[in-house]
From TrEMBL:
Keywords recorded for this protein, A-Z: Carbohydrate metabolism, Glycoprotein, Golgi apparatus, Membrane, Signal-anchor, Transferase, Transmembrane, Transmembrane helix
Protein name: Carbohydrate sulfotransferase
Pfam families named among the record's database cross-references: Sulfotransfer_2
Domain of life: Eukaryota
Originating species: Desmophyllum pertusum
GO BP terms: carbohydrate biosynthetic process
Molecular-function GO terms, alphabetical: sulfotransferase activity
EC number: 2.8.2.-
Stored PANTHER family: CARBOHYDRATE SULFOTRANSFERASE
Transmembrane segment boundaries: 12-30
InterPro entries referenced in this protein's UniProt entry, alphabetically: Carb_sulfotrans_8-10 (IPR018011), Sulfotransferase (IPR005331)
Enzyme class: transferase
Membrane topology summary: Single-pass type II membrane protein
Length: 287
């Protein structure tokens, strides 16, 4: 009798144990998923509130556009190009840098004072290590791309090609001289369309290298920089580049047909940024 009761009790305890284990496991499993859901929506909520709180002041920009038709024109040219070409190329993430304090995204375009601009935006960071948008978690990346002030600088295509050419073949930097081989075709030559994803990114401001000083002043206003932050940008003094004065000397050495071909290759950059073809090389065609 006692033995039977003990056995019954044993079975009961076992059942209770199993129920407790199952219940705990159930809680652990579903509780975790619920927590995960909660965490996810929390992340979304944070991202959304970040967009709202960090939204760079759009009214500043609208106000700026209305007073500064040049930027509006530049934006319109890009939009027209993108619509007509159907281009949707994403930017090369290596080139998309971000200063979180200023809430500014800058696409590095080589040969367009990119070194100077990097120093203005990231005064204490070594050039190679400037923060990129891609280093941040996805929801923060989206928030930045959506709400930060996005800008880049571009340059007349023939000048830019020559400047890259001089860098690569005429005045080699010491480190390049030491290397036996270095890629002659790299991003220095690439189209801005691909580097910066001009159509995918919806930039707020496009500066021109040729009018750098004026455009930097406009940039300060458009981005709503504080007087203190503005100082670094306002100090820039544009010196007439050696490239522009030697442009004809170099290009007169190549057949006009090649210049036509360059014009075709860089067609997108001419059209999108409102540079005329053959622009500064016009006199070569008049001979
Ligand atoms: C971003 O800009 C701020 C304000 O000018 C500056 O103090 C800060 O060092 C910059 N951030 C980086 C990562 O360089």
């Amino acid at each position: 009798m006692i033995l039977r009761t003990q056995r019954k009790l044993g079975r009961l305890l076992l059942i209770i144990c199993i129920v407790v284990v199952l219940y705990t496991a159930y809680k652990a499993w579903f509780g975790a998923t619920n927590d995960r859901d909660a965490e996810e929506s929390e992340t979304l909520k944070v991202a959304r509130s970040q967009v709202l709180s960090s939204k760079f002041d759009v009214s500043t920009l609208q106000d700026f556009y209305s007073r500064q038709p040049r930027q509006k024109e530049r934006k319109k040219l890009i939009e027209t190009f993108c619509r007509q070409s159907g281009n949707t190329a994403k930017p090369n993430p290596l080139h998309i840098t971000v200063n979180q304090t200023l809430k500014i995204i800058y696409c590095i375009t080589p040969k367009c004072a990119s070194r100077e601009l990097r120093i203005m935006l990231f005064p204490f960071v070594n050039g190679r290590n400037v923060p990129r948008v891609r280093q941040f978690p996805p929801h923060e990346q989206n928030m930045m791309l959506e709400s930060y002030f996005k800008f880049t600088f571009v340059r007349e295509p023939f000048e830019r090609i020559l400047s890259a050419y001089k860098d690569k073949f005429v005045y080699l930097r010491n480190n390049q001289r030491k290397q036996k081989q270095y890629p002659a075709m790299d991003f220095h030559w690439d189209n801005y369309v691909n580097i910066c994803g001009m159509c995918a990114m919806n930039y707020d401001f496009i500066g021109h290298y040729e009018t750098m000083e004026q455009d930097l002043a406009d940039f300060i206003t458009a981005a709503g920089l504080s007087a203190e932050d503005a100082r670094r940008f306002a100090d820039y003094k544009h010196t007439q580049s050696k490239t522009s004065s030697s442009l004809l000397k170099y290009y007169s050495q190549i057949p006009l047909e090649w210049i036509d071909i360059l014009g075709q290759i860089y067609k997108a950059n001419f059209e999108m940024f409102g540079y005329n073809f053959p622009g500064p090389l016009k006199s070569l065609y008049e001979k």
